# Entry
Amino acid sequence: MDQNDLQHHIDKRFDSLDSRLERVEEKLDDHLSRLAHAEASIEWIRGHAKVVTIVILSVAGFLASLWAGIASS
# Structure
């Protein structure tokens, strides 16, 4: 192999590595995007679960106070 052939071979290998790294980077970007969306969805669900819990406890407390008021009359 002369120097030009060797340089061409090395350039081809670097181009191959570069294209592989670009594909990995694209996959990583896609994964990070999905992960960010999933985290936002989890926060949304967590917030709504807190609201539903508060409403249920409030209704239960109201019904308990009504029942205690009726029972004491």
Remarks:
- The mean pLDDT is 94.
- Helices lie at 3-72.
